[in-house]
Amino acid sequence: MGGLFDAQENMRALAVTTTNTRELKKIPKLCHELAGAVRADRDVRVMVMGIPNVGKSTLINGLAGRKIAKTGNEPAVTKRQQKVRIDGRVALTDTPGVLWPKIEDQASAYRLAATGAIRDTAIEYTDVAIVTSAELAKRYPDALTARYKLKELPPYTAPDIPHDIDADGPKKPDFLAIAGFDGNAILQDIAARRGRPTPWRRGWICIAAPKCCFTSCAMASWAD
Ligand SMILES: Nc1nc2c(ncn2[C@@H]2O[C@H](COP(=O)(O)OP(=O)(O)OP(=O)(O)O)[C@@H](O)[C@H]2O)c(=O)[nH]1
Ligand SMILES: [Mg+2]
């Protein structure tokens, strides 16, 4: 993922985990490098932007070394902009999460939901589990097998994207059976881990191939 961003002009990608303060310390220096010459008595002004619930405020707290911004494992925790100065002549602005006004592409919508960027009430979470299970099985079979202590995964079968799944109800259990594991385990993970960092969601598995839909996600979110 770093390569994709790094290939763009005036852009640098840095994979960090918000709890790893040693990695975070690289960020002010990188900001100065990107900003170029700034008067010695001025800060570099930085906006932290990205999709909801992706770790922007946690990143700011980590950079500031204290809890300034409110955080939480749900979208729209940050309601307004908040500015904070940190060491190294950097002024950070936290911002509310942003999404496209309308997400036309169903696959993108389900990926966003899987990361927690979309409220539980706005999308059918069983469908999210189905699509996410299938995508993980396809892209990260080893990680999935390890996480859920599975002996093996059956051959990949594309799920029916659930925009028509309600019309064709039986496809849900079919897919879960074909996949050979219980997609509800993923749902239970989401429920059990609410309020805590969710390692599979924003961690050792990156659900989003950047070209799919997420090029605007906060760079800090896919690292650990
Ligand atoms: N696994 C993991 N979880 C993280 C990381 N950074 C933040 N989180 C968790 O992600 C959740 C969301 O964090 P926030 O900082 O509130 O996210 P945000 O992007 O500010 O969210 P909004 O303000 O709602 O847009 C919290 O439960 C954090 O503990 C990380 O590096 N790894
Ligand atoms: Mg926030």
From TrEMBL:
It comes from the Bacteria. Transmembrane segments: none annotated. Keywords: GTP-binding, Nucleotide-binding. One of its GO terms (molecular function) is GTP binding. InterPro entries: GTP-bd, GTP-bd_ortho_bundle_sf, P-loop_NTPase, Small_GTP-bd. GO terms for biological process: translation. It holds the Pfam family MMR_HSR1. Residues 45-108 form the G domain. PANTHER family: MITOCHONDRIAL RIBOSOME-ASSOCIATED GTPASE 1. This is G domain-containing protein.
